[in-house]
Write a structure and sequence with these properties.
By secondary structure, the chain is α/β, with parallel strands linked by helices. It is built from 11 helices and 18 strands.
Length: 370
Amino acid sequence: MQTVKAVVALGKGQPVQLTTIHIPDPGPGEVVVQVLTCGVCHTDLHYREGGINDDFPFLLGHEAAGIVESVGPEVTEVAPGDFVILNWRAVCGQCRACKRGEPQYCFNTHNATQKMTLAEGPDAGRELSPALGIGAFAEKTLVAQGQCTKVNPQARAAAVGLLGCGVMAGLGAAINTGGATRGRSVAVIGCGGVGVAAIAGAALAGASPIIAVDIDPKKLANAQAMGATHVIDSSSTDPVTEIGRICGDVYEGAEGADLVIEAVGRPETWQQGFYARDLAGTLVLVGVPTPDMRVPDLPLIDFFGRGGALKSSWYGDCLPSRDFPMLVDLYLQGRLDLDAFVSEEIGIGDVEAAFERMHRGEVLRSVVVL
Ligand code: APR
Ligand code: ZN
Ligand code: ZN
């Protein structure tokens, strides 16, 4: 066992605390990772606010890169010294999705079996719930071997670690779920970290035009820097009409986008996406709605008449072992600018302040560097 510094959420709505935790030695199939960097994601804030479940205390952080420190028995996929990105889709190989050959939809993914615990304070000894089964706002963390994906160690940890969650969600929504490609138009509604990653994915896949929609002009400037060919400020312009106009200018007869990615997570913007598609177009929801939100009340004939597909994208339908090494290689070749997602590097004591900046929409990603 060892004792390390970590950021935990002790109770609903309380500011997070920097404290110490105990990490067990790795058991069968488990790995201790020395964390190098970990991005601050909306989901960490949702855990702290009690929006995910009530299993406090939470060990926050899940967009991480690090070095394998030690491995338990039966670990064959990684070894001490490996540079890894952590993931929350450690596929099981046994569930229905895995068995039918679609492990990117695995619904029984692996986490560490042993528990990390609080090392100090009135709750010392209490078991921690790691965010998304990872818990990486910590000098070290305990995970299952499948949660570690080995990648090229020449890459900058703060940048490629973001593939562990939000950036992969956006890139994958465009490439994996939406099938963005050459000769197809893409519109992205909501240009925060996830939406901008979807734009980068669409650009990587050769799609054109790539239309960015947001209500914040600063976000539209980011989107352009990441590959958007057109921008629409939907606080003053109707995005459905404008997307249709732009696509019709580029492809004769087009009435909307071949692929629309909704990266806000709200019924109003989902509805805009529904109507901003060309005939037989695809809408992908990657923004995360809250449980009280409802699918908009639309005429069923509008769905029938337009055809196409309405999809959602969880973690960009990624398969970490397939997608992370490939995307890191593209990053190293200068074809995928992951550095652009790192708005700032911060210390492990600065997570609470980073939540506030994220909430105010000031950053794409703050990244804790350990
Ligand atoms: N129309 C267009 N854009 C909007 C609208 C709207 N009505 N409302 C908000 N936005 C924009 C914001 O201006 C912001 O640029 O959506 C973007 C959301 O970005 P972030 O808050 O940075 O969130 P991000 O990290 O990109 O995640 C997007 O996925 O992970 C979930 O909880 C997360 O639901 C959120 C979504
Ligand atoms: Zn499975
Ligand atoms: Zn996340």
